[in-house]
Design brief:
This protein is an all-alpha fold. It is built from four helices and no strands.
């Protein structure tokens, strides 16, 4: 599944923080995961990235998807899981 143009802009926005506000099923978690991965790929320390969700369920889902996204990089994955 590819990102929509709006989602892609949110993922690759540089020089500013991003706030992702949208309705259920619109791809917010996907955007947050891709944004996090893009930032890490750009050289940002994963421990310096703050991702905030509205519910604990969403936070668990985000963490799970990030762990899966970085499965091939155990060091980064461990840092994310902290």
């Amino acid at each position: 599944m590819q990102l929509s143009p709006e989602q892609s802009r949110a993922v690759t926005r540089s020089g500013q923080d991003s706030c992702c506000v949208a309705g259920p099923g619109s791809g917010k978690t996907r955007v947050l995961v891709e944004r996090f991965a893009w930032l890490v790929g750009s050289g940002i320390d994963p421990e310096s990235i703050l991702a905030i969700t509205f519910t604990e369920k969403a936070a668990r889902e985000l963490k799970s998807r990030l762990a899966a996204r970085f499965q091939s990089d155990p060091t980064t994955r461990q840092r994310i899981e902290r």
